[in-house]
Amino acid sequence: MAIKLKEISKKKPLFTGGHRLCAGCGAAVIARQVMNMVDEPVIIGNGTGCLEVTTSIYPFSSWNVSWIHSAFPNTASTIAGVESAWRALRDFEEMKDNYRFIAFAGDGGTYDIGLQALSGAIERGHRFLYICYNNQAYMNTGYQRSGATPVSSWSSTTPVGAKQKGKPGRSKDLTAIMAAHKIPYVAQASPGFWHDLMLKVERALQIDGPSFINVIQPCVPGWGILPRDSMRLARLAVDTCYWPLYEITDGQECTINYHPKERLPLTEFLSPQKRFKHLLKDENRTLLEQLQAEVDTDWEMLRGSLR
Questions:
Q1: In sequence order, what are the residues at sequence separation of 6 or more whose Cβ sits closer than 8 angstroms to the Cβ of residue 195?
Q2: What is the per-residue pLDDT across 40-57, written as a single tens digit (0 to 9) for each?
Q3: What is the H or E stretch that residue 54 is in?
């Protein structure tokens, strides 16, 4: 499949500018790329987080579609309830439009606070696409660690000092957790590879059932990067195999969507970020080597799942 950019450029934007997101924020890029692939009536569920608080400040909105704000824990429950109401109205022939349903929530509201609601909603088989814009911490409340925060990275609740070198313990593999539910479609994506992300959204919206896309999202203040480097980091995450691009159908068939021609060392991704600057010091070389080894192992395990 190919993305028809000329046709997309002529469409009315469903997600507009004028929001209050930080300069260089990846969430706005993700939302724009996702909404560009919507061709049918759509209802958006948006959990509390950076994307919600910056795009819906009354009386303004960046959403040119039906949009619902959900609390941190219940984004998936809200969109599942809306989808159930639509099915009931359709069955009684009171609703003829073929709606699509998309949920947006950050990693805090997905990996942690909203995991139970998400698991229940996808287990029940509701038809919706859940987008996790994953900036790897609770960024809108002060950069606290989440279940997605990488090992050995700085956050305001996992400081770097004499007794602790950032977050202890690895992050959850939520993409694998979602795939373990045996739902029709699960994927990882990056806004730095827009064509891949938009194709995955197109596939997911065609499914009559739940789908989930985990999208890495550079955060300028939380990662400690320059606004102009946001998409460069989104690409480096993939080219270092820190964030592989792949998709899983029905919990079984795995496809790697991108193999770097020249795989870059992990330091290319880490060095521009202040949250990892301590790992580049000589006294923390062991931690850096461990992190590189973990990325290597995960990449080989993913490649091995194809055999």
A1: 3
A2: 999 999 999 999 999 999
A3: helix 50-55
Alpha helices in 36-114 (DSSP H): 50-55, 75-91
Closest by CA to 101, choosing from 85, 120, 119, is 85
* Tokens encoding 122: 């996808």
Q: How far apart are CA 149 and CA 51, in angstroms?
A: 18
Cα separation, 219 vs 272, in Å, equals: 12
- Among 134, 140, 138, smallest CA distance to 214 is for 134
Mean pLDDT, residues 64-79 taken together: 97
SS3 of 194, please?
A: helix
List, in order of start, the domains of the chain with CATH numbers.
5-304 (3.40.50.970)
DSSP 82: H
Helix (H) / strand (E) element for 302: namely helix 285-304
Which runs of consecutive H residues, i.e. helices, occur in 57-179?
A: 75-91, 115-123, 174-179
